[in-house]
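User: Please run a holo structure prediction.
Assistant: Happy to. Please share the sequence and the ligand.
User: Here you go; the ligand is magnesium ion.
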Amino acid sequence: MSAPIIEIRDVSKTYAASEARPALADLSLEVAAGEALAVLGPSGSGKSTLLNLIAGLDRPSRGTVRVAGTAVHALGEAALAGYRRERIGMVFQFFNLLDDLTVEDNVLIPAQLAGVPKAEARERANGLLTRLGIVRHARDYPGTLSGGQRQRVAVARALMNNPPLLLADEPTGALDSASAAEVRELLGALVAEGRTLVLVTHDTGLAAQCATRVIELVDGRLTRDVRNSPVAVAR
Ligand SMILES: Nc1ncnc2c1ncn2[C@@H]1O[C@H](COP(=O)(O)OP(=O)(O)O)[C@@H](O)[C@H]1O
Ligand SMILES: [Mg+2]
């Protein structure tokens, strides 16, 4: 197997507001490139905290987080911003789209931040929107789209800089069942083509469809780590 893309060693995270109980306690975890890891566990078990540490949105209290060789825990603010821009694509439960920008302009943001020339960025955005079946909504505003369409826009934005790692926090958590099915299929297809994915979810159907491995957190500790068969190519 190839070198792990994520290496988490003895990580603990305690928030200042909740001194007594750590959100993560002595967690170690390696994720190989091409794996699709589903993180399950009850509310408050540390799932979002884990994702945020990998994304460089927060820092561990102790321990180390390495992603593709980068010591994320040790980066300064400017380097962290660059890390997030180039290495991480992130999808959230409530989409986090900018409602006063068009779909296309939302998807263009990561490329603009990375200084990609406008024409090239537009071409890339167009390709992604076409692939994700939403190009006809390029000039529309997110507020006019269904939840499933909005989440596809968020996925397109996450893929804009072609990051080696895709992170998703409850990506079907706010969707009706038809939209959830769309997003499951999309994420399954991305995994089938070899994208590395870390997925926090309560949606066991999503885990079953997309994940090659499932871990469970309880009270900030790893209580289960199971490898599934590889995800079949979704066609
Ligand atoms: N910014 C924060 N400040 C203080 N406590 C937090 C913060 N974020 C999360 N926590 C606490 O850390 C624990 C784990 O939270 P979280 O990682 O959000 O869990 P999950 O995503 O599994 O629901 C919870 O007890 C939560 O209240
Ligand atoms: Mg959470």
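The first strand starts at residue 4 and ends at 13.
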